[in-house]
Amino acid sequence: MAVKAILYIMERDLRYFFRYKWWLAGMVSMNLADLFIMAVVYTRMVDPKIGNYFLFFSPGITITALFAAAFMIGREINREIRREISHYMLSLPIKRWELAFGRVLAGAVRGIIYMIPLLLTTLAVTALLAGNVPSALEILTIILALFLISIGTSGLSITIAVSTTSFEKYVTTRGVVYYVLFFCSTVFYPLKFIESVMPQAFALIAKYNPLSCGADLARSFLLRNQSIELFMPLDLMVFALIFASAALFAYMKIMQK
User: What is the domain extent for residue 11?
Assistant: First the structure.
């Protein structure tokens, strides 16, 4: 019964997600434009000694798309709470923990579905320009790492969403989280560059930022230009566990009010 209930909630959220298929197509197109326009321009601007920025940014754009899609579940849940649509959810013959777990997983699966076109593009780009074709096991490892990021992001989004009924406070908090996780990470810039231009505290955040760990782990398989450090998969597992647990607790608590 628990599995069936969780799958029902996931199906509901995924159906809602695909109601905006043209908007999703537009967002994917924008992400691809970031890769093929911005990254190409930056490649001409960056010192060749640093490396090919286009190749560097390719895995990063996959992380960017994944994070944005997985974070969307929080906006919907915050709206449901503000408009008291959550009362309908309580009327369903589903336990609160099943409801919470289904929503966290739905957010994670959304992120994975959305990032697939970007990941396929990244695989094609790195194969053509770098001549690196990862094995099936390496691709599976990349997808698993991305799924952990997606679960953690979904949980983080839901935790923020249920922490306030004020839309203004939610948007402000979401914006701060976006900026910290995106720009204190190696999604856009190499860690050595961050360490050379930013305070040590920001460089430390960038090193252990789960988005950085996911991007660098993907680069290690796709570009073969860096090794995987032990803390990377551990960081992703801790991120997923902490925020998935926080979301489950916070969502169940808010549904009791």
Answer: 2-254
